[in-house]
Design brief:
Blueprint lengths: L1 H39 L9 E6 L2 E5 L11 E6 L2 E4 L7 H9 L5
Antiparallel strand pairs: 1-2, 2-3, 3-4
Length: about 110
């Protein structure tokens, strides 16, 4: 009886640990998906966007300009649904947000 109870307890704990990792992964993936959708709303040709180095609301995107040419990968941060792109802010907000939200993941 004690062995069965102990085994059930171990299986239960292992199952809970596994679930928390899975839930964390789902949340991160959902955040990345939301970031992609938010960024695509700003682009001239959203279907041609290429994403890399995504982690949560941070990453890099290569997009086409109005002439159809890729502009090169630019870093982005999505905070509360607002997209901040590298080189597009005038107040240095991007650098601050990138450092605060993205550098610990790299």
């Amino acid at each position: 009886m004690k062995k069965t109870l102990g085994l059930c307890l171990i299986i239960g704990v292992v199952g809970l640990v596994g679930c928390s990792g899975t839930e964390a992964e789902k949340a991160r993936t959902n955040l990345e998906d939301q970031a992609v959708l938010n960024i695509k709303t700003k682009l001239d040709n959203p279907n041609a966007a290429q994403f890399r180095n995504q982690h949560g609301g941070c990453g890099e995107v290569n997009a086409k300009d109005s002439n159809g040419n890729y502009t090169g990968f630019k870093k982005y941060v999505v905070i509360d649904g607002n997209v901040i792109m590298e080189g597009e802010d005038k107040n240095g907000i991007f650098a601050q947000q990138w450092k605060q939200n993205c550098t610990s993941h790299r």
